[in-house]
Amino acid sequence: MKQETALIPYLTKRYLRFDKSQPFISIAAILAFAGVAIGVMVLIVAMAIMNGFDKDFERKLFTMNYPLTLYPKVSQGISEELLKELESSFPHLLFSPYLRTQAISKSGDAMEGAVVFGVDFEREKQINEVIAEALKESEISGRFDILVGSELRNEFFLARDSKLMLIFTQLEPTGLSLSPTMKRFDVKGFFRSGLTAYDKGYIFASLEAIRAIKKKEEGYYDGIHVFAKEPMKEIDSIRAKLPLEAGIVGWWQQNGNFFAALQLEKRALFIVLMLIILIASLNIISSLLMTVMNRRREIALLLTLGATQSEIKRTFFRLGNTIGLSGIALGVLLAGIALWVLSTFPIISLPADVYGSSKLPLELSWIDFGMILLGSTLIVLLSSYYPAYQATKIDPLSVLRNE
């Protein structure tokens, strides 16, 4: 056993040396090593960038969509009594009731569609960090004070304390016809979620103002936003407490198709980039096969001198693994350097008005990192096995007689 363990490392080191008589074999091994390293580096960096964009978008979407939302199944709405009952049953959760309506925001000749939420700003800022940040620089005290998004501010050239006309879908009788409800609001602050659709289309007003415009009965709401640290666990317990006239939905259910598409895109990217490592592994196969063919006489002599087929097989298997696994290690090191450089220096600058931040988002999950290492390792192991197996098929008598 000692002779076996000593022979395998000796032959591995010998075959790894640059062969001046057959430089193409060594060059193929170097290309295999470099190809695996580059493939692993590209795969890790690409997955980190894609994860970063996904998580960043998910955080923004999560903030403006809320973890859980209660909605009415009847036209009257969700009652104040149900809100108080839920607050009593789930003291660790945060609740913010709201009224919702649609409107057209108008400034001069410019108009934009808007979704207007009537909220209790004290409750809302506890569950919505975007609103909480906006209220640090704003004071909502009047009945018809509003918060608008940064994109709407830029489009309408709004300033703090400026007026904004909202034309609501509620109709009022005026003589012989019906006219939409119009109201001029005072702009008291601006919020920025990082998503253009929300920053242009969402407007937050007081509950009292929207209740008066919708002529909503006192004590009823269009829904309740719920903040929970673990919404997927809390949703079932809340649903059990709800009466038949109310339902609950999670943010992941509201955007299920979108996140399913993101996951499919991520898997497709992983498979495509893994093909780079697969192509690089072909160089491992060709390099080992050329080494086997070039060392046929040496292998035959070793077999006649007492070396076993298992030792020959393990030698070439280790040789391929040394090339491939060292390439993987170098790829991980290069990826770490690349991610550090991208996160430290502004090499890639993003348009902040589109992405909400000029910094490239990077986030590599341990699951993705483990899958990359597992997949690339399996490819290297499988690529090393076939040439190693072929090395054991050499017939010593035939080789020594002919060569």
Quaternary: single chain
Biggest pleated-sheet summary: 6 strands, mixed, barrel
> What is the domain tally?
2
Helical element count? Answer: 16
**Structural shape:** elongated
In sequence order, what are the helices and strands, one letter per element? HHEEHEEHHEHEEHEHEEHEHHHHHHH
Share in helix: 55-70%
Membrane topology: Multi-pass membrane protein
Pfam family, one: FtsX
Family: Belongs to the ABC-4 integral membrane protein family. LolC/E subfamily.
Keywords: Cell membrane, Membrane, Transmembrane, Transmembrane helix
Give an account of the 3D structure:
It is found in: Cell membrane. Keywords: Cell membrane, Membrane, Transmembrane, Transmembrane helix. Belongs to the ABC-4 integral membrane protein family. LolC/E subfamily. The chain crosses the membrane at residues 24-50, 268-292, 323-349, 369-388. With 403 residues, the chain is an alpha+beta fold. The protein folds into two domains: 2-61 and 258-402, no CATH class; 68-227, no CATH class. Helices cover 59% and strands 20% of the residues. It contains 16 helices and eleven strands. The chain has a six-stranded mixed β-barrel, surrounded by four helices. The longest helix has 43 residues, at 23-65. The chain is elongated. The mean pLDDT is 85.
